[in-house]
From TrEMBL, chain A:
This is Sugar ABC transporter permease. Coiled coil: none annotated. One of its GO terms (cellular component) is plasma membrane. It comes from Streptomyces asoensis. Residues 85-305 form the ABC transmembrane type-1 domain. It is a multi-pass membrane protein. GO terms for biological process: transmembrane transport. Keywords: Cell membrane, Membrane, Transmembrane, Transmembrane helix, Transport. InterPro entries: ABC_transporter_permease (IPR051393), MetI-like (IPR000515), MetI-like_sf (IPR035906). It is found in: Cell membrane. The chain crosses the membrane at residues 28-49, 89-113, 125-148, 178-201, 237-258, 284-306.
UniProtKB/TrEMBL annotation, chain B:
The chain crosses the membrane at residues 69-92, 104-126, 138-160, 181-206, 241-260. Pfam families: BPD_transp_1 (PF00528). This is Carbohydrate ABC transporter permease. It is a multi-pass membrane protein. Coiled coil: none annotated. Residues 69-260 form the ABC transmembrane type-1 domain. Belongs to the binding-protein-dependent transport system permease family.
Amino acid sequence: MTVTVERGGRVTGKQDGAVHPRRARDSYALFLLPGAVAFLAVVIVPFLMNTGVSLTDWQGVGSPEWSGLANYRELLDDAEFWESFRHSLFMVVAMAALPTAVGLVLAAALFDYVGKHFGSRTAAVLRACFYLPQVLPIAVAGIVWSWILAPDDGSLNELLQAVGLGSWRQDWLGDPDLALWSVMGVMVWVQLGFPLVVFMAGLERVDPQLYEAAELDGAGWWRRFRHITVPQIRPEIYVVLTWCTIAALKVFGAVYVLTKGGPGGATNVPSYFSFTTFFEKTQVGYGAAISTVLTVIILALSVIGLRLQTRAEDAEEGARA
Amino acid sequence: MRTALRRYPVLIALCLAALFMVVPFLIVAVNAVKSPAEYSRNGPLGLPDGLYLDGLKDFWERVDYDRKLLNSVLISGSVAVLAVVLSVLNAYAIGIGRIRGRTWILAFFVLANMLPQEALVYPVYYLSKQAGLYDTRLSVIIVFTVIQAAFGTYLLSSVLSRFPREIIEAARIDGADKWQVLWRIVVPVSRPTLGVLLVFFFIWTWNEFLLPLVMLISNDNQTVSVALGVLQGQRLMDATMTNAAALLGVLPALVFFLVFQRTLTRGIAVGAVK
């Protein structure tokens, strides 16, 4: 984004006079004050409270009873807890791995193929179609898909019937063996637009001469993809993978509206598990332990992701220099 | 010529994939305007005979949809504006003021941005009850202003750290104080980025589910997303109602999408790298 600045008239005001440079720098700290107070009240204090409560036995009323690491020990033996984290891995496949891989191929196809042969407008329209599910509230996406996947008169089953595959009709969200796969399918649909848009934006930075030179050398689309597209937008790939993996670990709304973690816990995920533990079973200490474990995992992944990203950017800077 | 023939299969495949992405929207639109009788006669895949809008109207009145829309607009709008202001103040100190310890402060905002809401939800619920703010729209506005400002601070700090220093120096020599430099120079110059953030914050807050679900229990305070999610969770809707709900949920999103599409795709490009 380039910005041009027009300097208006003289700005008049109090003359600061000659200030000690270090004092001048520190007086900027005042601008951080509102932010600091707000973050203390909404993020830091609640987070510390949550961590503290996870070391107690508490039903949400009365005073918490200190229990040390008992909640965490109990978690280790809790089959439901392990199960919910196993489902998280499925969600990472559906929301990070698949959308990133497919998004990469789609972005390259739209940028290096459709854009060139059919104009950038065609590419933009197609991109918009893929991005559309991203702006939908997850609650609404859940309503739409619950109804499409409904067992009796759902569109998917009706469609199978109409093309003569009536024997394939399923209770997509109600069958314990299928529900997780159905939720994964919905999540791929929801998530796909994000990597695509980010990658297409990243490709705008790439020097078109690289592609031209490769084409002159007779490199086909696949070789251009492997040797130009992927290495050039490596920083974006790390950003998207990190971002989407974290989103996958936090998935809540989709599970709430599609399956409520059911049938029989078949689609339970850590976020939903902590929610029901907090508000339905009112085992606040135990719920806090679940969410603390989730937080530790997410923050560890964030740090690793940021590391990979900065390294990729440094490598890119180095290659340019 | 031969290449032209080879080109089309790829385009057709991509168009089919795009169609698959859009089909759910089309199915919802088609069924939302069918009467229950039509629906039971032809099922979900039949085309509607005419526009039957009573289903939409009934649903609108039943869930008091204008109230829900008002809540969503009020909450998302307030959060967008307040979070941008908070982000600007933070980023001014970090990106332009270059205060000491800024690397750690910035790292804190990045981590706060990654923090799962599950780790905050119970204490926030408990504290808001203590403060008498439970089940008020204000509580949700406060919490999301801070949460969104984490991302805003992170993004704006990197944008402002590349701000041309000589402009600021010149204004200082002209005798402007820090406050004037911020509002008369930094903010007007950064307007495109702030616009992107405003749009992002609005849509993100509109789509939020977990915290509003916990915090807004009375019908009068609920947002569109929560109201529809709760209705869906109760499994009490028939097909016509479900479609009305889906269509009314989809429409605002479509409006945002069309209005903000340019801003959004540009914004994602800004936020993607550094």
